[in-house]
Write a structure and sequence with these properties.
alpha+beta; Arc Repressor Mutant, subunit A; four-stranded antiparallel β-sheet; globular; HTH_CRP; cNMP-bd_CS; transcription regulation
């Protein structure tokens, strides 16, 4: 991917929007480009790397993996999202494993170059901290859901989150979202695939969820407290 394409994507990322075009051009030249295939590990939990990563094309997931290869998905990053900021800032090993969920193109910026960028542009630190706080809140919500919600409501909470970000309202009043496999839902909810399958049947039986033509359709304005 030419640097001009990297520059174009960086301009759309809030983290770098405070930079002038001239300085942004210098930053884009500091990125190395890494192409990864679907299923490829970008880095493992406890790896010593400290670079900043930005998704230029495709999609990746950050997850925790136990000794039985069960996954708990912490976050999903798409085009324009950055990840790896914790190790970037404190220099400590990675806190999660990151895996490509599609064939992807990743921009990699060395820690030393990013720290220099921070010194010269303090506003980036504020934007970075805001993004980190938002991710911490998302993690808190996920942990709260795992602790207090049953599997059906955990799944529904995920669907509502997706609907809020990328859902499409249909003529019959439902919200159309992309289909997610039972395995992915198990990873996102911390439940077994068997529990997910049962929960999905409950949602379909109650008319909250429909599945057709490769998409899910859910009812709008569902109150999780009354579900």
């Amino acid at each position: 991917m030419p640097n001009i394409e990297v520059l174009k994507i960086l301009k759309e990322i809030p983290l770098f929007q405070c930079l002038s075009d001239e300085y942004l051009s210098l930053v884009s030249n500091g990125f190395t480009i890494k192409r990864v295939k679907k299923g490829e590990i970008i880095f493992y939990q406890s790896d010593e790397s400290t670079d900043l990563y930005i998704v230029l094309e495709g999609c990746v997931k950050a997850c925790l993996i136990d000794t039985e290869d069960k996954e708990l998905v912490l976050n999903i990053f798409k085009k324009g999202d950055f990840f790896g900021e914790l190790s970037l800032l404190d220099g400590r090993p990675r806190s999660a494993t990151v895996i490509a969920t599609d064939n992807s193109v990743i921009g990699v910026l060395k820690r030393e170059k990013f720290l220099t960028l921070l010194k010269n542009n303090p506003m980036i630190a504020i934007i970075l901290l805001s993004a980190m706080v938002e991710r911490i809140r998302m993690t808190d919500e996920m942990l709260g859901a795992m602790a207090f919600l049953d599997v059906s409501r955990r799944i529904l909470k995920i669907f509502l989150s997706i609907a809020d970000k990328e859902g499409e309202r249909t003529r019959d009043g439902l919200i159309k979202i992309r289909k997610i496999t039972h395995r992915e839902l198990a990873s996102l909810t911390g439940a077994s695939r068997e529990a997910v399958t049962k929960a999905m049947k409950v949602l379909k039986f109650r008319g909250i969820l429909q599945e057709k033509n490769g998409f899910f359709f859910i009812l709008p304005d569902i109150d999780l407290n009354r579900f």
